[in-house]
Amino acid sequence: MLDFLGIGAQKAGTTWVYKMLCLHPQIHFPAGKEQHFWDRYQYVLQGRDDYPGNKPAIQNYRAVFNLPANSPHLQKKLGEITPAYGILDQETIQSLYNHYPKARLFYIIRNPIERAWSSALMALKRAEMEYHEASAQWFMDHFHSQGSLQRGDYETSIRRWTAVYPREQLLVLPYESIALTPRLFLAQLCRHLEIEPYYDAVSDEVIQGRVFAGSGKALPAVLRQELESIYNDKIHALSIYLGQSLHWL
């Protein structure tokens, strides 16, 4: 049975969270971190025929979490973390709920300006380009791409998920806590996933280890200005929606 899902956000520390949860004796990821099933399954639900490769089948996904009777992981919480799930459409979320209504969800939010910059740098690498080869316009085009804009619109994502799942099943966590208070971050996550606290037994060296660190390229002022024009109003609205101060502006 699928017990939990990490639904994002992209470039918000989900690989570190996966590494930490893999250490927990009550957690198991039957197929690793990212299965990318539900973002692909959208093609099936939408009746589209342009999906590259074999269309995903729900019975194959369910089989991943139906462990055999002799599995040593039968008593553990089973899950996956796929950041692309944060921007699923509501029809797909409803389908997921129909199969797994009790799944616990968590969503890590990061300053969308910094997230968009980190995502653009990742896209640059995937395009096999060097930093000096990309113009300011290249970065701006990426910032305004549908994928980048959707991944930085946390309020819309949260509203879409909680229109289907009860709000108490979705835990929203701040990315900054991973660096500032990682043990508190993990304690909150453990409570939400209904597993025992464990990380007092894990060394600071492991807890504070960086995973898939970015290039460290500073965000140029002209590009920051562009991102602020996109996200400042969204950050303010999200702060009101969540009822908490977001120190991103």
UniProtKB/TrEMBL annotation:
Cross-referenced InterPro entries: NST/OST (IPR037359), P-loop_NTPase (IPR027417), Sulfotransferase_dom (IPR000863)
For this UniProt record, the keywords arranged alphabetically read as follows: Glycoprotein, Transferase
Q: Know the name of this protein?
A: Sulfotransferase domain protein
Q: Does the keyword Endoplasmic reticulum apply?
A: no
The answer, when asked if Transferase is one of the entry's keywords, is yes
What SUPFAM superfamilies is this protein classified in? P-loop containing nucleoside triphosphate hydrolases
User: Which regions span the lipid bilayer?
Assistant: none
Q: What is the lineage of its organism?
A: Bacteria, Pseudomonadati, Pseudomonadota, Gammaproteobacteria, Thiotrichales
List the molecular function annotations (GO) for this entry.
sulfotransferase activity
Q: Please state every residue range assigned to the domain named Sulfotransferase.
A: 4-198
